[in-house]
Design goal:
5 strands; alpha/beta; Beta-carbonic Anhydrase, Chain A; single chain; 2 domains; globular; five-stranded mixed β-sheet; 7 helices
Length: 184
């Protein structure tokens, strides 16, 4: 899909008022934040597998549903959803067959070089304290990765004690969910 096709479709979408079925406000109906992977297989499957309708949750995504640093943009989004948008619960949902489990930072760096990112740029970043292995390495099991992300959220110094944080794994073929860790 090109940008031109996307914009042409959008013009028709607005003209035909197709947006009306999606009207909601900014407060999540189910008072929940879901943090999940950006995998395209989950775009429609995940909301349907857990009966989500427009406006039900705040959905935050990144590659692999990974939080490695307690003050990254994902954690900022979760905290804003809790303090400003009335979310009361956080659910981390990883998935089987995740592309991040296979990421090799060395191979990724080689692909960057092939696509025009110079070795000097990589060296400059490394000299500035940016460790590409730390930034891009994958994980051994999705369950361990979910537990790591849940642990960072649960133990965050700015997370209210009453906010429950759960970890699940979804099968991207069937939509079946398995609980990895659950708050009471």
């Amino acid at each position: 899909m090109s940008l031109e096709k996307m914009l042409a479709y959008n013009e028709q979408f607005v003209a035909e008022k197709k947006y009306e079925e999606f009207v909601t406000d900014s407060i999540p109906n189910k008072r929940m934040v879901i943090f999940t992977c950006m995998d395209s297989r989950l775009v429609q499957l995940l909301p349907n597998a857990i009966n989500l309708k427009p406006g039900d949750v705040k959905m935050v995504k990144n590659a692999g549903a990974i939080i490695r640093k307690p003050f990254d943009s994902i954690m900022k989004s979760i905290l804003v959803a809790i303090y400003e948008l009335q979310a009361e619960e956080v659910v981390v949902i990883g998935h089987h067959d995740c592309g991040m489990s296979h990421v090799d930072p060395g191979a990724l760096t080689a692909k960057m070089n092939e696509r025009g990112i110079s070795k000097e740029t990589i060296e400059t970043l490394t000299n500035a304290g940016i460790n590409l292995y730390d930034e891009f390495h994958g994980f051994e099991t999705v369950e361990e990765s979910v537990e790591q992300s849940v642990g960072i959220i649960r133990n965050h110094p700015l997370l209210p004690k009453e906010v429950n944080v759960h970890g699940l794994v979804i099968d991207p073929k069937t939509g079946k969910l398995d609980v990895v860790t659950k708050d009471s």
